[in-house]
Specification:
Strand content: 15-25%
CATH superfamily: Tetrapyrrole methylase, N-terminal domain
Distance between the termini: 50 Å
Number of domains: 1
Low-confidence stretches: 235-243
Largest sheet: 7 strands, mixed
Number of strands: 9
Number of helices: 9
Radius of gyration: 18 Å
Order of helices and strands: HEHEHEHEHEHEEEEHHH
Length: about 240
């Protein structure tokens, strides 16, 4: 009985209940895209890409990237990963189970196959346990195997809750303005020796940090924010909510 109850909770109650809450909250956000041409250019050329973001900021993307289907994401084979995979499946994403410690080789092959079929790939560069802001080698391995560029995907909210977690996880407050920004594409060569691999990893890590900091500073510029959230900008770039 107890096992059945736990199965129901992990398989249905938490995924469906949590996702319902996420969708309700996300529906109140005023979201704008910034530099959307960086995403479009890569998709026009490669038909696929790898979205790279920090664990701290992925909350606004949970529902937003459902509009980017087909999209796949690698999830660990742990018990917590099972619950995350369930949410991902409900969203209509493709969950690929594996990590650096278990099932990673098979997962990379699966991501490669999906990328060739036009699936985009979402990747949390420092998840699920950090350290915060550290780009783990997995991002580069996925890019090498899939043969697709990495596009830094930055989210920033004007008003947010900050949780006391390892990465100070952020959730935008109801009706907050939210910016989703696409950085310039980063190519990762299929062949990199040890030193070159580490240099590329560090350069991507630094680029993400710079983009997050630059995007967060936008909230201190009323003129820029007014332009980003104007109706003209919304119509021009196909943003998903009106002012």
């Amino acid at each position: 009985m107890r096992r059945s109850l736990l199965f129901f909770i992990y398989r249905y109650l938490i995924p469906y209940g949590g996702l319902l809450l996420v969708k309700a909250l996300s529906a109140t956000y005023r979201v704008r895209l910034y530099d959307p041409e960086n995403e479009k250019t890569v998709l026009d050329r490669h038909q696929s890409l790898i979205y790279a973001s920090w664990h701290q900021r992925f909350f606004p993307g949970i529902t937003f990237f459902s509009s980017r289907k087909p999209i796949a994401i690698m999830i660990s084979q742990s018990r917590d990963g099972e619950m995350v995979a369930r949410v991902v499946d409900i969203l209509g994403w493709r969950s690929v189970r594996g990590s650096s410690t278990r099932g990673g080789v098979a997962a990379l092959k699966r991501l490669k196959d999906l990328a060739r079929k036009g699936y985009k790939i979402g990747h949390i560069v420092d998840g699920p346990k950090g350290p915060f802001g550290y780009v783990k080698p997995g991002l580069l391995r996925i890019a090498q195997v899939a043969g697709k560029p990495v596009v830094p995907t930055i989210t920033s909210a004007q008003k947010k809750w900050v949780f006391n977690s390892w990465d100070r996880f952020m959730v935008p407050k109801p009706f907050s303005r939210v910016i989703i920004r696409f950085g310039d594409a980063i190519d990762v060569p299929a062949e990199l020796d040890g030193d070159a691999f580490e240099q590329k990893r560090v350069s991507i890590e630094q680029r993400l940090k710079e983009l997050y900091e630059d995007t967060d500073r936008m909230w201190d510029d009323p003129v820029k924010i007014a332009a980003i959230f104007s109706k003209w900008t919304t119509k021009r770039s196909g943003h998903i909510r009106q002012s």
